[in-house]
Backbone:
């Protein structure tokens, strides 16, 4: 079997000015450090590639968009530096999307948790199916959505972010996410979603890239301190993940 099949990975295809970045992991598209690093790198590379006029970010398969952090890696963390490095993976993906000069369209076909909600928040325009419920489960496992928090709050506002963070065990529907501004549109089927994503990407690929670059700068005004902010949030998560509460929760979950 291929490395992507067993350990997950990221692929990028560029066609007619549209760069499609797809991440995959066999455990419901969860995000181990390897996949996070590849994802940040591919977003950065696409942003520098003149052949790419617009970027589509998607995950593999037809079910979950993203199961969030890899529980196996969380359980294996035994020291602060390793913990901070792991959570910096999420910070790097968000910052790569923020700093990318190309507009990024998100395609969310199914449920998304934690870091997946962060990614959906970090794209510039996000489309989803009605199955794309969202949840920030971090508080329930003893951490908190510290790294993804700024991206989520920027997109949905403090009130909705607070609801997601505090109701850590509850799913919110795709329609809820649309009403709060995380998703722009919600579709009944994945085929309808794909048609809408392709149609929008095709239009954007023909627009003035300089104008889109300047527009994106305006969208992200006020986030210039995020390199430092997300690093400090990763350090906080790296500290909390070492606690007995988190270790016990993850172990019990894996033993179910």
Residues:
């Amino acid at each position: 079997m291929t490395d992507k099949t067993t350990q997950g990975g990221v692929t990028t295809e560029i066609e007619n000015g549209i760069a499609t970045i797809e991440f995959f992991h066999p455990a419901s598209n969860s995000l181990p450090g390897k996949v996070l690093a590849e994802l940040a790198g591919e977003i950065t590379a696409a942003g520098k590639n003149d052949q790419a006029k617009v970027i589509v970010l998607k995950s593999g398969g037809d079910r979950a968009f993203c199961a969030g952090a890899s529980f196996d890696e969380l359980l294996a963390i035994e020291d602060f530096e390793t913990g901070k490095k792991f959570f910096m993976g999420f910070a790097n993906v968000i910052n790569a999307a923020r700093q990318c000069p190309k507009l990024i369209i998100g395609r969310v076909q199914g449920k998304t948790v934690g870091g997946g909600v962060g990614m959906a928040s970090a794209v510039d325009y996000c489309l989803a199916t009605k199955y794309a419920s969202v949840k920030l489960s971090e508080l329930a496992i003893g951490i908190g959505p510290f790294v993804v928090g700024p991206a989520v709050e920027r997109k949905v506002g403090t009130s909705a972010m607070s609801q997601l963070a505090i109701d850590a065990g509850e799913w919110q529907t795709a329609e809820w996410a649309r009403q709060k501004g995380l998703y722009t549109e919600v579709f009944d089927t994945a085929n309808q979603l794909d048609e809408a994503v392709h149609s929008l990407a095709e239009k954007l690929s023909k627009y003035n890239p300089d104008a889109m670059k300047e527009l994106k700068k305006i969208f992200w005004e006020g986030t210039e301190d995020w390199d430092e902010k997300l690093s400090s949030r990763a350090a906080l998560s790296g500290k909390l993940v070492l606690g007995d509460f988190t270790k016990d929760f993850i172990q019990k979950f894996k033993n179910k």
About this structure: The mean pLDDT is 95. The beta strands are 9-15, 18-24, 54-59, 104-108, 112-113, 125-129, 134-135, 185-187.
